[in-house]
Design a protein that fits this description.
Length: 302
Amino acid sequence: MKKLIHKAEILLEALPYIKNFCGKTIVIKYGGNAMVSDELKENFSLDIVMMKYIGINPVIVHGGGPQIDKTLTTLGIQSKFVEGQRVTSKETIDIVEMVLGGKVNKEIVSLINHQGGNAVGITGKDGDLILAKRHKKVKLSPETDRPEIIDMGLVGEITKVNPRILETLDQSGFIPVIAPIGRGKNGETLNINADFVASHIASALKAEKLVLMTDTEGVKNKAGKFQSGLTRKNISDMTRSNVIRDGMLPKVNCCLEALKSGVHKTHIIDGRIRHALLLEIFTAEGIGTQIVEKTRDLKSAH
């Protein structure tokens, strides 16, 4: 009987969060090991279905770097990266679109639907959801000590998000699953970083939350201690002192951009933990790093 009562108490702990987030939109960037492990993939799909059934509107943006690497290697095409971003040639873009918009996207849709959800897979090209331009990366040349433009190929930088297709899917009870591909001004396909796509979509939808799933515990301070909650000022200080750097830097910047556009809270969570989404959203402690505008926002419902 004690075990049964404990289960009831766990459900009751989630009640304030269910009430607070019912009817709200939460944008989730799905990536990392959570997309590779069969157990974690099943956990993720169950989390999404539960969120939908209790009245939350989840919107999923997924990555797929390892799956693209595997396909390119099989075809004998070498991957090239500049500061963590894939250089996407005309030869590569068709494969990127095939893997992201086809294999990976449809697998996620299938997993969610198998658990009782009602997911629909789209890319940023559908309904002109994501319009983009070619990304120009500027880097200081060590030879000339002058900035030079690096050709990233068909890598995109978002110029506009048209959320109408997402609003239509939401009104019909569907769960959107979005591949991070956009349309250029000449109709070309552009490969876009999934974190940036999730941030822009959360901003366009004025989402309650943006959640970035990663393969790290969250943001850590100079001493390597995990930080459960940070404000914009904290992030600014940690960035200036080079505590936040490398792969974590663009993620926190995505969070800050979303906050500036009206998203209430942003989260960076460890997708390697079972049911990471439910633990972050429906418990007082959470498991990841919350990033908010001001200290008072850390004290409100998780």
